[in-house]
Specification:
By secondary structure, this protein is of the alpha+beta class. It is built from two helices and seven strands, in the order βββββαββα. A four-stranded antiparallel beta sheet has the order 1-2-3-4, with helices on one face. Strands 5-6-7 form a three-stranded antiparallel beta sheet. The two termini are 29 Å apart.
């Protein structure tokens, strides 16, 4: 992973420092942004977030199985199992950072409905580091 005390791999000697926020494969220190595309100063960077996820509510597979099995035993009452719902989130959240001639885009899988909130807060923190 690198030499202890030298920061993340690929960082120049001036970029050493603790990671303050990690957004996908983008790492921000107090003074630098580290991406697979390169390392550059955080001052003056521009950040954008695009939510490309979708959350849907579907009948639970467990509810379908219980309704089918229960139909033999309890008939109409087992149809209430079809009211069991589960929420599924699919897609990803795209984060783009641009600064000092380098643009890097990362796609972060949206594993739950709160993922966009979490990523947006991380990007807002990176923006505050860029403005400081």
């Amino acid at each position: 992973m690198g030499t202890p005390g030298m920061g993340a791999p690929g960082m120049g000697p001036g970029a050493a420092g603790a990671a303050l926020v990690v957004i996908g494969d983008i790492t921000c220190t107090q003074t630098h942004v580290i991406t697979p595309s390169g390392t550059f100063p955080i001052a003056g960077t521009q950040w954008s977030v695009l939510d490309m996820s979708r959350t849907s509510e579907e009948i639970s597979q467990t509810g379908i199985i219980l309704a089918l099995v229960g139909f033999v035993l309890i008939c109409a009452l087992s149809l209430l199992f079809l009211l069991m719902k589960e929420t599924k989130t699919t897609g990803y959240i795209q984060v783009t950072v641009h600064g000092h001639g380098i643009t890097h885009v990362t796609n972060i899988p949206a594993l739950n409905a709160g993922a966009m909130f979490d990523i947006s807060n991380r990007v807002q923190y990176a923006r505050s580091l860029a403005a400081a």
